[in-house]
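G., before I forget:
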Amino acid sequence: MSKDQCLISINGFNSTIENLSSFISITKAEDFITNKVLDIEIDKSENAQRINLTLNSSSTDLIDFEINLTLNEGAILEFVDESNYSNNSNIRLITQLHKNSCFELYKLNSYNNENTNKFYHNCSLLENSTFKDYSFSNGSKENFSKTIINLDDVNSRYLGSGVSINNSTNSDTEIEIRHNTKSASSDCYFKTVAKGSSKVNFDGTIFVDNYCSKTISNQVSKGLLIGKESKINLVPKLEIYNDDVECSHGAASGQPDKNTLFYLTSRGISKEEAEQIYVEGFLSEFFETIDNASMAEKAKNFINLNT
Amino acid sequence: MLEIKKLNVSVEENKILNDLTLSIKTGEVHAIMGPNGSGKSTIAHTLAGNPNYRVESGSISFNGSDLLDMEPTERSLDGLFLAFQYPIEIPGVTNASYLRQILNSHRKHQGKDPIDAAEFLKLLKEKSAYLKIPMEMHSRFVNTGFSGGEKKKNEVLQMDLLDPKLIIMDETDSGLDVDALKVTADAVNQMKSKNRSLIIVTHYLRLLEYIKPDFVHIFQNGKIIESGDSSLASRIDKEGYE
């Protein structure tokens, strides 16, 4: 563990927090299990600070907590959650990004097909701050994820990439990007693979207020239907009240291209392997969006393991 | 090796092949020529098991097995290879990993261990050098952004890696410049053997000047209207199909 790191480990009713960084302040840690709230503040530093969240529990209890995260001016933070969730969960993250701060959130999570998992994130961005939001999820009987992004000050920037892999499981992803200032930008990419009898919903809203000129915002959502009984519902929404903006959205879903599958099988690959190669190709563009090489590799491994 | 008897094939509602009968022995090279829409590509894709082509009646025997009972995967693993006229692009999958995967599928079928990364790289370098394929091409996604020539060379490379018993080349010469055509034809000639048969589907004489066929068949309206030796291709090139 380096001096830039903090490990938060939650194991059933116990939690341990190891913090070696002088730039990461955690309050309410001692009452965490009772209050289920952690307040974390990140100060400006030369190198990126890192928080690793690990959830480990063999019990079936609900994992339920809230993290209030503040990045002070100029702070840089990588927040990584690579947990395999074996419980029901209800996690809330409230984030405030101050001027010139940069927050990278990596969630690479496998869920148990029997559980319900909820994740709620509300993030406010101030001047010239950046939030890079990468989420890869697999499984969960019912997976609800809601993200609200408030771009509250000029030149704030949101880059969101989400992958949801479902094998006869259900997921609901909702993202609302609110441009509350001029000259802010957002890019949101969501891809999902629905196998078996999965049902996947994606609801993406871009809201641009009437005084928010020079807004740049793009949203793309794509779904791949592998199972005959699987369903994907992609709902892109634009609410734009200013003319001086560049906004786009696109949504598409369908089954794997039959000609591609034939090409692959004509080379001796089984139908199942051909579908897997197709899925990997479909999802691979996400690795390109991750600047951090080691996290890109982890995302790649996550997808290879779960497709 | 291959016995096609009274084969009738439709695409959507259009009947393309009409009672086609053709016999190919091991080690023979057959060329199929014919005007557009005569059924040349249809026979190529039907042999490979493309589900877009519906066999209405007839039979195809491949080394004693009923080919029509076999899935495309099985046909490939049993030694049939179709080089596509329009190779399919697969974004997100690097050519190197794809090539290794198809090779390992065949190795598994043959009861061999998967080829390890170092050994595969050595093999790929050797085969690519022969076809004048830059190694850089293998780090790109399969056929994505490849030139016409690169796509066709990639097909021949796969053919070489998989070492098939029956090769069907569907207009491999289209999109190739003179130099690329020669390199490709040289590679195919190297693969000719008494244990392997070739079906070359083409519009033009130029490929057949490099790869000499034993038999040339002229297709029209989904059937063979004339067969002969390689001189038939020269005559068609001079006189046309009319």
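The mean pLDDT of chain A is 89. Chain A touches chain B through 23 residues (CB under 8 Å).

More on Monday.
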